[in-house]
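Dear Dr. V.,

Thank you for agreeing to look over these. As mentioned in my earlier message, I'm a first-year student in the group and I'm still getting used to reading structure tokens, so any feedback on how I've presented them would be very welcome. I ran two proteins. I've put each sequence directly above its structure. The first is here:
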Amino acid sequence: MDPDDLVTSIPANLLDTKSLELGIRSYAGRVQLDGTGTAKNNLFYWFFESQTCSPHVPVADQQDLISATPLVIWLNGGPGASSLIGLFLENGPLTITEDTVGTVSLTTTSWNQEAHLLYWDQPLGAGYSHSDDPKHDEYVEDEAELGHMFWQALQKFFQLHPEYAQCPLYVCGESYAGKYVPAIALEIDKQNGRKAGQHIDLRGIAVGNGWITPELSLGLMIDYVYTTGFIGLGQREELLRDYAKVQAEIKEGSLAEATKDGNALVDKTLAYGGKFDIYDVRGWKGLPWETLKAYLNTDPVRKALHVPLGLEWTCEDNSGPVADALVEDNMADASDKYGALIDKSDGGAKRYKVLLYTGNFDTACGFRSTEEILDRLMRDRDPEWHGAPRLIWQQPPGDPKGFVRQRGNLTQVSIPDSGHEVPAYQPETCREMLYNWLFERPFHGHDPQGPLA
């Protein structure tokens, strides 16, 4: 008997004139969590089994393979963004054309080629995740609350699909998920320590262009925009005065005011620069997703994904009620959570792997902020991180794919010719990076400072 959340096909276009067969095991729906009132909270998920597993072979006959395959969770940020943006525009098995037809097709660069993929709309209020009464969504106000709600949702998912409960699990995401991901990982670690619920075999986290230390990222944004010629010297000086006000508010703990003024600083910077794309300084418009929004707000799609007919799919980028509820969280520094995960060990062996990667044309939370965050974190933990070899990841005669630094359980990768959403700009390279990290495959290349350089 097929599970109630099985997805075998979805509408192949906006008008639902034909269907697209997925050809793999896929499950979608919403897990129900208790709220503080009478309404239930519902978090939406969409799962895709690894292509290394066969949908034609019974689960019981390939359970060992299923359990040995990594389970990668993907989260977009915002706050308020749906992770279906990542699914259709970045690293998932599906894509959609940005036109009036909205043709949906399978991709060749999906991360589920060798791993299970699980997308979640979270926190409550993002995507298809709403309470039974969407007018009374219980929006989370901090990462501790978010992490616990997500842990509860994972428990529900593994109750529905115990065949994936033993998989090595990696929590991954980008942008504001730079806050979500470590908070969720630490909550899983805490609950595992308490032996609460289903043990989750957490192995590591990966974050792309993470919003981690906002104070640092805002200052570096101004420098980057000045260096690339989008603002002049006088404008830079004015923006730095505004930035000093945000810094003072953060220092005194006025985080809501810092978020408001930080957002105003970003808006002014963009206005002075002619409204360039903050996520890719090479262009003027971000990734297009209007057709995807129209597609996900059709009832044939809702029916295929087992969500209530008429339920609005919502997606916001640092605006709307989800962002409003996280107004104090927005400017809080999350770097200590990464330090905690890097430090955790069992009998001397590091418990979790950590990957931070960046696209080099992002002005919001790009390379320099990640580089300096890691330098600060590792200064006392491992002073040799600062001078660790920085490999040019390259397989001649091709151009460099990226720049890699690895030491202990920490990996940092910078990927050129890419904006904020690295999997969208460099899909093949980003997937190879992920698999090298997941499966401990080598990053082929050379050390330009080595003896043979």
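The second protein is here, in the same arrangement:
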Amino acid sequence: MIFYICVIIIIYLYGAKNYNYWKKRGVKHAGTIPYFGTNIQQYLQRASYAMMVTKTYKMFPGEKIVGFYRGVMPELVIRDLDIIKRVLTTDFHHFYPKGLIVQPSKVEPMLQNLFFAEGDTWKLLRQRISTAFSSGKLKAMFPLITDRAEKLQVIADEVVNTGGVTDFKELMARYTTDLIGACGFGLNMDTLSGQNTEFRWLGKRIFQRKLRDALAVIAKQIFPKVFKNVNILAYEIEESMVRLVTQVLKRRNYQPSGSNDFIDLMLEVRQSGDLVGESIEKKKPDGTPEVVRIPFDDLLLIAQVFVFFGAGFETSSTTSSYTLHQLAFNPECQEMVHKEIDTVLAKHGNKITYDAIQEMSYLDMAFSEAMRMYPSVGFLIRKCVTPNYTIPEVDVTIDDSVVVMIPVQALHNDAKYFKEPDKFIPERFSNENKKHIPKFAYLPFGEGPRACVGLRLGQMQFKAGIVAILQKFQVEPAPQSLKVPIADPTAFLVEDFVGGLPLLLKRR
């Protein structure tokens, strides 16, 4: 009997051994549960990670930082804008990893991408890949977007003919999948026409949290060393992506084909040779950075295509559908967008062009406001790499490997920074008014060296889709529409909605 009691005590103590971390440093935090920390609701899939971070943000409104435990790992939620600035920009060299990879020494192939990668891999990828998103390359890619936008209008017309009510989250996901097929792979996926393609399956599967996926994340967070060889991504995701990209590479003989898509851009990057540059991690004895070299092999190339597909698919479809949702519930704003589209397109032969999209300032304001109310990524995450780093604003010292979180969704909906945050007011982002938005209170695409590299491409795709719909149609709430959609508690990195976003589509 005594033996079993001792075993239970040992198990309990092991699961709670780190839970004095924030108390010792005088940092407030919520109550903990052994092994699960303060994150039990997310592990049970009753709250997304963004929901948990937002809840933590609201728990102690007078604090600049709040403690959090993801499993047994101490983390920190930053509430103060000056500290957020410090983490993202001023002291970036102390916080350059995102901390999404639990075991940096054992990284699965598809996570060696620009979004997940850490240290030198991230730095060298960023330097080389950022050139793929230049204005000239984006403009060359725009005809691919125009073709899909025109097809979206045809599908929208069919929706009207069959009653007009459709789930815009699904419709814009199909549009985005077609776009990524064209802009990423140079392929005509025909997903908009309802074809059940492997691309559409893959887009759904990446963000679908099955039991296996949830258990893998929980196991790696609670017992990181024991489960270091368990992949977060399911085998079928990696296998499908490797096979799809390899097929395209073989058809092109592993050489750029002049198609202006993302795979072509990556092949151009590879033609430049290995990734070479100054290390962000290693120093010579004299204190100068070492020079590092990383081969840009097939798997590293495929990993970049994977994140182009995954990040572009879910964020663009969520943002565009939610913007249309808000315009449906705010018809006066929709009318402003209609007028702007009509006026601008009239100057461009009623064609959706790259230059026309750039001129639509009110549409940009509506997009920015939708991203404020419901950012597709509700939090930013960074990991400290410096032993005994002291946060000057609060005089709290943290260890290296401690993860800090910037609560984007909470900041965007805080009345301290945005009056009447529950209201859709695009004018907040007029040239005059956006000057008054505190720096680092609005972070839909991050900030600093790790801000979203594909920002302009994402905006271009999104705007073309919105213009394609509103050039010929108007959106209204459907009988089953909810003014405030229900956020999906099972979402992981990218936010989603329970039941989609049904709207009624009518011809203008």
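From my reading of the second output: The chain is about 45% helix and 10% strand. The domain at 112-377+413-507 is CATH 1.10.630.10 (Cytochrome p450). Does that match how you would interpret it?

Kind regards,
E.
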